[in-house]
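[audit] Reproducing an earlier prediction to check determinism. Same input, same settings, fresh worker. If the tokens differ from the archived copy the diff job will pick it up downstream; this log only records the rerun itself.
[audit] input (325 residues):
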Amino acid sequence: MSETPYSPPPLTEPAEPAAAAAAAAAADAESAADRLPARLLGPAEVRRLADRLGVSPTKKLGQNFVIDPNTIRRIVRAGDVTAEDVVVEVGPGLGSLTLGLLDVARRVVAVEIDPALAAALPDTLAEHAPGVAAGQVEFELVRADALRVTELPGPPPTALVANLPYNVAVPVLLHMLERFPSIERTLIMVQAEVADRLAAEPGSRVYGVPSVKARWYADVKRAGAIGRNVFWPAPNVDSGLVRLDRRDVPPTTGAERRDVFAAVDAAFAQRRKTLRSALSGWAGSPAAAEQALTAAGIAPGARGETLTVEEFARLAEHRPRREQS
């Protein structure tokens, strides 16, 4: 779906940084105020739209549609979406969150794998988001599996905001952060258990692979809880919001990301064991693992859940080289 590109109003260059920030905030507010408001979907509209399309939420795709407009507004606010943002949304479904994003953002690119939902989304937006047709905001649809997306149309995304399917939430998040380094802010709604794991700190019993890998890219924190009654159908679990703010640079290390992640995977594959034992396969032997740990300044008797991402990065630098046969 192609629309007239949105051009923010020109700004005169202020003399002071504070004046620049104030001018930018005023421009955002003016742009949002002038935009034709989107009409968000309520419970009756979501069900009526699904019936009309013959769409039934499937467990295979982890589909649960948001039916509460206030929750949509809350997600957009928690993501600090502004009129300057290019937002990528994964799994727009029937368009509930998409409409909320179109109320604020400069441009929204939605990635949808379900062919029926993808085919219906442009008509829904034409009916409920007049700002798109008026050229006040851009929208583009990408019909693809988010795990296979390697590029997006238009300018680089600055934010990722999504209600991620429970069954692929972490892989999708990590893939998007890796493929699109321009994403500065991420706000995702996921299963509460997944939210807890992503936001967990070292030493927590739920700190694990997602916790460490997410911190390679960003600072991570919980941004709120979401009940079950805002979805249709209502899931059997509660949900949570997670906010991620991109780190200026990944942890300083001479090791590549894949090598750091390999150390993380090995450490948590047998999380009850000490790192000396858990990393024996990764290093080649328990003795080699102990040598690498000691060189990295990590106690061989420690466990993976006590290490920060920076410590895993140091550890990866000291992985023994394997003999070439």
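[audit] rerun output stored. Observation attached for the diff report: Residues 218 and 246 are 4 Å apart (CA to CA).
[audit] end
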